[in-house]
Amino acid sequence: MGIVAVLNAIWTVISTISKIISNTLWYKNIFKYVGVVATRKFKPAKQYHKYAIIVAARNERTVIGNLIDSIKRQNYPEDMLDIFVVADNCTDDTAAIAREMGAICYERFDNEHRTKGYALQYLVECIRRDYGIESYEGYILFDADNLLAPNYLEEMNNAFDAGEKIVTSYRNTKNFGDNWISASYGVHWLRTVRNEHRPRSLFHLATRIQGTGFLFANELIKDGWNWVSLTEDRAFCADAVARGYKISYNHDAIFYDEQPVSFKIAMRQRIRWAKGHLQAFVEIGPKLLWHIFFTGGVASIHEKGKVSFWKRLFNNIRLRFMSLDILMVVYPRQLFIFFKRIFYLIMKITFFCLAVPNIPKPIVIITTVLWWTGEAYLKGMLVALYVYIIEQKRIQKIPFFKTLWFAATFPIFDLIGKFSLVIALFMKVEWKPIPHDSNVKITDLTNNAENKKEKQKIS
User: Fold this and answer.
1) Which of 8, 53, 80, 102 has its C-alpha lying 20 to 30 A from 423's C-alpha?
2) Structural domain includes residue 210
3) Distance CA 67, CA 82 (A)
């Protein structure tokens, strides 16, 4: 009975902490419901703004040309757009292909500082030196394997013209149907769209950016690109919110992303993400926590002209809430949940063994694990089916039985994410590139007639 008392005492502490966190995050249920039916819309822009598209590429000869081709097909004035590529530690002809396609390409060789963040830092400094940061009103970041829908820049310009300083976009998957791994990635991104991007944008809050496909005003990098961790996107996002910026989302700006199909590559990427998320929490978490209580006046620094008392008050409250919200994003909640569930599993097995000593322990363990995982697995499947149903008009057409298979395997992807956090907690992680082999072009994903029609809008 001593063991039972100790376990109960520990469980009481864990449950209390969990309840406090759950009560803090109650508003996310509102986000999920709102995300089903609504998102923010932007009016057509009154003017075209000048942008620089920036791309960090390492040995991306297979895909870099297709990205640039999709940019060239945009129904947006070509003189209002420049493409910058940093060929980072490349051993192939990525740089030559980028230049041949019309991009401005810089080559970087530094085996000591190898993250994408360092490559972007170098590229931004090259742009500052040769062109000036303020030569472009906004910067749009992509990965080399991305492809842009023909109206992507037009839609992002609508949001930027409306006064948004940071805008992310709809991340579709160009190889959705390859296998269960690529499909799981696709569901993962679209789940974020529905549960986070759409409602946060509607409420004029800050959503999170996720690696690629986002626009930001030049003022964000007036002092350079300063986010060089394993997950530079999460650090950029948290730092921006701590500086008083909201982050919006445009549901009509669609780009396509290539997802891994190898379990080994997926596992490596998830562990890197997990390590980067832990680093971002340590680096930016305290700053976000501080801004929940002390805004330091940054709530209204991005407002133009004289700001009324009530607007300052609203902005102040909004900033505090955004800081709390993004803190809950960077806080490794899944790590806490994982250890909580493991402890709960140990408790259940212990209680069953003590209550029914005649049942063989392997049967008790197997039965308890199946009961413990069954509910979570079913929820994961339902989430995947929800995404397939609600996003069916936009994602790749997949046979019905294949869809069921992908939905049935999606919970494994989530489980990998949880294990990755535990591994990353104790493992030294180095940045390694993700290979991209898909030669899919934007014309393979969109209707050719539609491309032609969209292109003719701008002469």
Assistant:
1) 8
2) yes
3) 13
